[in-house]
Design brief:
Oligomer: single chain
Number of strands: 6
Largest sheet: 4 strands, antiparallel
Radius of gyration: 19 Å
Shape: globular
Structural class: alpha+beta
Strand order of the largest sheet: 1-2-3-4
Number of domains: 1
């Protein structure tokens, strides 16, 4: 009876582990792309409009949107000036403590594409990735307790 029970438990464990590995995502490619985005932003010799065109997905282009994004990227650049970029950590949504993401409404976006950047244990930026580019680096409140990513 004991060998049979052990065999059944081993089978269940193996099935569970393989299902988890199928569902999980290798975040290394996304994180490398976000690191490149951060490195380009931290390099003040790179024009903001170049960073914007190389790293962001713009679905509904307009002059107003480009102005907004340039100002927003400039704010992130200023914030990066006081930081050592090699000390920034990149945490996927799935690895975030539940209490830190309870106030985020994914709104049908794939949470496996959401990353949170921390500097010395303080969140500094949230990023949504799609098609190997930045889909959003803007989290806004929906007027209640929830925030969502704004896609451009």
């Amino acid at each position: 009876m004991r060998p049979l029970l052990s065999f059944i438990l081993l089978g269940l464990l193996t099935t569970s582990l393989s299902a988890q590995s199928i569902a999980s995502k290798d975040h290394a490619k996304d994180i490398a792309m976000i690191q490149s985005f951060i490195a380009d932003l931290a390099d003040d010799s790179k024009a903001i409009d170049i960073v914007l065109s190389q790293h962001l997905i713009i679905q509904n282009p307009s002059d107003e949107l480009y102005d907004y994004l340039e100002v927003s990227l400039q704010e992130v650049r200023i914030n990066l000036m006081t930081k050592r970029t090699d000390e920034i950590t990149y945490t996927p949504y799935s690895n975030m403590p539940r209490k830190e993401i309870n106030d985020i409404d994914p709104e049908n976006l794939d949470t496996q594409n959401m990353y949170f950047l921390h500097y010395r244990k303080r969140q500094m930026l949230a990023v949504y990735v799609e098609n190997n580019k930045i889909g959003s680096f803007t989290l806004v409140s929906k007027g209640g307790r929830k925030a969502h990513f704004v896609r451009y």
